[in-house]
Structures are given as structure tokens and as C-alpha cells.
Amino acid sequence: MECIGLTLGYSSGLQYSPICSTDRFSRFCTVAPSLNDPRVCTHSHDTAPGIMADGHSHNNHVPVLLSFSAFSRPSSVPVGSGYEVLIQKFLSIYGRQIDLHRKFMIQLYSDEWAQYIDLPKGFLISEKCKLRFVPLETDVTVLGNLIPATTVFFCCDMQERFRPAIKYFGDIISVGQRLLQGARILGIPVIVSEQYPKGLGSTVQEMDLTGARLVFPKTKFSMVLPEAEAALADLPGVRSVVLFGVETHVCIQQTALDLLARGFEVHMVADSTSSRSMMDRMFALERMARTGIIVTTSESVLLQLVGDKEHPKFKEIQNIIKASAPESGLLSKV
């Protein structure tokens, strides 16, 4: 699914996620409050023709006033509509006026505060209300900073049956073990997936999963499944995902794109991911970099996480990287 350059924010942290050009939008709203939840729009206004006294229409739609720039247009959306539906509605009405290279957010008019407020995370529409599409004053650039307290590691499908098929598998296992060791030292949560382990075996023995927050089986290529999303929900401060494993052009790429669509900053470790084909591997790395995923190396990740020679864990991290990581065929393609 290809994405256009428009980016939107929500919640007090102003997280941003690409908006896709098809009708299958990424799932931003992970919380589904009841209609009695105070986050749900419950403003009352004069009823319009075809609208019942409680603000609902006879066809189970809710009237909304959608504003952008100097324009305002009445419309309607189904009861229970969330962020995705609102994005689609704004784009269908104002698409030609929207600069796709800018970043935007949706705001909700609050009677309590008598002004527009940031759309609450998990917002669902219950009754008619006013919303606006707001360009941000400053463009938000992905800087790629990594902080242990806001980072999680994703280890994808490093399994025994892949050993003879994946290019430089021994090298990427070695680098992956460095990353896992660094995560334990720095207290960074690790989420591990295993693709159809009944047929493809468990994670290779060289990879020490001691302390991993979650190890789960999957058949879908992407790691972004309910189990992983639940684990992420238990880590509310996380905004950066360091991703490594196999295969670069399949499970890694699809996981990275799914995470990006959910507002996470994705750091893909090039020297700890590979494919059966170097062609597939290199084109996937290039595609991900162009999509906004940060393609980096294991040493860069570990040193960025400590950030300072005076960091109390610096010497332990230094011991991991004293010997340079194997280049795993990357230099031959530069």
C-alpha cells in the first residue's frame, strides 16, 4: 500500500503517521471508548432536518462541521467513527486545497474550554460536533534520536530453518546477539517473533532471549499483530522501534511499514537483517529509507543509546563493540 506525503498528528504528544492513498487507512485509534466516555464528542446543538433530538440521524450518521483554513462545510459520518474515517472525510472534501507536503492535525471544538483542542487518542464520535484540520506551524522532521526509556527492540524470525537459505545468516545472528546483549544492559524491552515455528523451528540457540518481554509465533509476515500491539500498549512511552531479523524484503519491510503507519519511528539495523537474495535485500533497504525508515547499523544504535562516555553503562556497551561487527555483504554492494 503506497502512501502520500501528508502526515497527521494526534494526542498531546503530537505523534505523526502517514496517510494512505487507498481507503484502507492505518489503525490509529487503539482505544475504543464507550459512547459514555468523556473523550467522545457530546456537544449539543440545534437539530437539523433529518436529525433526531439526540443529534443522531435516522440512518445512524452523525452531523459534523468540518473546517479547514477559511472554509467550513457540514457533513456527516457514521456513529462511532474514529480518526481514520475523519481523515478520509477531510481528504474527500478538501483534498485539492491541502498541501500534501505539510503536516497537519485534527482538533475538536470543546464547549468546556470554548476553543479547539487536540483530538483525544481513541476518539470516537457519538454526537454532532465541530472539527478542524490544522496545518502545523513548524514542519516536524524525523531526527532519529534514540533514548533507552522510549525505545523497544523487535527481533524478527531469526530461526533455525532459515540458516542455510539466508545470505550471511551467521553474520546477522552475531550482530543480533550484540543487540540483544545491549538491550539487556540498558534495560530495553525486546519483542521476538517466530514465523510458523512448528515448521520453521524456534529462534536459533545463539540468540539469547533471556529477559525478552514477549516471544510469540505468527504466520502473518508483519510482526505488528495483536500480541505485539498489546505489548507496546504496556509501554506507553515508547516511540522508537529498533528492528532486525529476516527476511529484509518480506517480514522486516512489512513490519517496518506497519510500525511507521502507527506513528513509531523505525530504526532498521542493516547489518542484522538479510534475505535469501542480496538483490531483494538491497532494494528493500533502499525502499525503506525512502519511506522514512531510518536505516542504520548496530554500533550506531548502541552508541546512540548510551550517548555519552560518562554513561554508567558505556564500558559494558564498549565491550560489545570492541571488535567491529561483520559487514554481512553490505560493503560489496555500496
Automatic annotation (TrEMBL):
InterPro entries: Isochorismatase-like_dom, Isochorismatase-like_sf, Isochorismatase_domain. It comes from the Eukaryota. SUPFAM superfamilies: Isochorismatase-like hydrolases. Residues 151-299 form the Isochorismatase-like domain. It holds the Pfam family Isochorismatase. CDD domains: YcaC_related. Belongs to the isochorismatase family. PANTHER family: HYDROLASE, ISOCHORISMATASE DOMAIN-CONTAINING PROTEIN 1. This is Isochorismatase domain-containing protein 1. It comes from Oncorhynchus mykiss.
